[in-house]
Amino acid sequence: MKKQPTLFYNEELALQKATEIIKQFEDKETVPLKAYEQLAKDYTKLLKQTKLLIKMSDKQQNYLTHLADKIEVKNQQLIQLNQEKTDFLGIAAHDLKNPLSTIQSVTTVLQGDFDNLSKNEIIEWVNTIEQTSGQMFDLIKNFLDVTAIESGKFNISLVMTDILLMAKFLITHYQPDAEAKHLSLHLETQEEYFALVDRNAIYQVLDNLISNAIKYSPHGKNIYIRFKSESQQVRCEVQDEGPGLSESDQKQLFTKFTRLSSLPTGNEHSSGLGLFIAKKLVTAMNGKIWCETQLNQGATFIIAFPINSQDF
Questions:
Q1: In total, how many domains does the chain have?
Q2: CATH number of the CATH domain containing 242
Q3: Which residues contact 297 (CB under 8 A, 6 or more apart)?
Q4: Does residue 21 have a pLDDT over 70?
């Protein structure tokens, strides 16, 4: 195979010819070989140094190219973060505008017609303010949770916790909301179910799954909450008889600011952050979360946690 010419092909060829000529006259004293030999040595040294400089330059160029690629990636990340910040502020402004407008309208009514309103009417208006401000509080809390999670400032402390006890409390808490929509909440387990979780985080996750089941279930349906213990893990399933999820909805189910095609059945508010936060919290607790669903056949959200730290 013919050798490809190198960068210094001509110089190396000249040096080779000079060396051959010097060898031809090695035994002839009449030719001043020493000067030529020194010239050849100097030329050889210069050629080596030049090659080394070229090699170093190539390495430097490769490093700069790699550095430029990394900078480009960082720039793209910054652009994405800036876009997310813009989206974040836009959603926050949009979602806070309606409840603020409601509170402003209610206070205007109370200030203008207070003397003409009955006690029951006043209580009803005050309840509206309470519910609306609660909606705003939940929205802001979700935003703060997302910020804490993404900045790594959401502290997780894993301890053995009876998660069934928390589920029972939440079922009692949401019973009035379920009854308002004629929903039946069924807890199919009565044993203790301990898992290695963060108490505040698991409460928030269970709260999200149960409240979502109520929020998206049509009136008069059933919601089943069941616990299972298998393969050194505790599973909690929240099953509803709602509209289920399409394939496109399933692909973006746990992403930030997701607006699914299914809408709350009682005019409830949704920030599009609940399942994103739940996913982050479950993962931080070494757990798993997923959804088993088919369109028009309801959905079952499942979370699984290790019984001890060696299991997952």
A1: 1
A2: 3.30.565.10
A3: 244
A4: no
Cα radius of gyration (the chain): 36
Render pLDDT for 247-292 as a digit per residue (tens, 0 to 9): 888 888 888 777 777 777 766 767 677 888 889 899 989 999 999 9
Q: Is residue 118 part of a domain?
A: no
Residue 284 structure tokens: 């931080």
More confident site: 194 or 144: 194
> For residues 183-204, b (16+ Cβ closer than 10 Å) or e, as one string?
bebeeebeeebbbbbbeebbbb
CA distances from 66 to 60, 69, 72, 79, 105 (A): 10, 5, 10, 20, 58
Q: How many CB atoms lie within 10 A of CB 103?
A: 16
Distance, in Å, from the CA atom of 174 to the CA atom of 207, rounded to the nearest integer, reads 9
Identify whether 4 is part of a domain. no
Cβ atoms 179, 185 nearer than 8 A: no
pTM over 0.85? The answer is no
Range of the domain at 264: 159-306
- Residue 197 CA: distances (Å) to CA of 36, 144, 145, 194, 301: 82, 21, 18, 9, 18
pLDDT of residue 178: 92
Q: Please give the average per-residue pLDDT across 3-30, as a whole number.
A: 64
Q: Is residue 23 part of a domain?
A: no
Element (H, E) at 290: strand 288-293
Tell me whether residue 259 is in a domain: yes
H or E stretch including 117? Answer: none
Instruction: Tell me the H-state helices in 114-198.
Output: 119-150, 163-180
pLDDT at 311 over 50: no
